[in-house]
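Thanks for the sequence, V.! I ran Cysteine hydrolase right away. Repeating your input here for the record:
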Amino acid sequence: MKKALILIDYINEICHKDGAFGNYPMLAANDAFNKLNKLLEHARKSDWLVVWIIVGFSKNYLEANAKSPIFSKAVEYKKLQLGTWGTEIIADLNYDLAEPIICKNVVNPFYGTNLDHVLRINSVEEIYLTGVSTEVAIQSATRDAHDRGYVVNVIGDCCASSHPHRHEASLEMLTYMANVIDSESVIKNG
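Predicted structure:
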């Protein structure tokens, strides 16, 4: 069964210590960047498809939903603008230029993007999700991937939130639709 590692929103504005969204403390406390780089090495050696997802908007923010509590703040504070430091993949991660980056304008990485197309033309049946925030993007991606028929695994120790209690509650809820595992078990058994 072909597998894919999908990394969601590991961008500066969301994951850097100087970013606006506050996920860095949990990522740092869990040594997530080191774990993610080991996962990337494993995925590449195992011939998995590696897909990066970023959230971002053009300079005029025409793609941003002004009614969204999340994205209206991005517009107000001029955050998550494509082509800026804020939407670059965080330098702590070993991104490979050969790997696709899919840009989303919403929470769900499947909605309005070609993610499903990329997975299906590469015969992917099983996905490993990791990213931020657990209670927003990871929950949304897991639910959608589940309903599309993928075998879904969430790598919990590499996901993060600015609210640790929401992270834990989300992982517990996601066990209904996914295998919630840790990075070490992926490398050992994946």
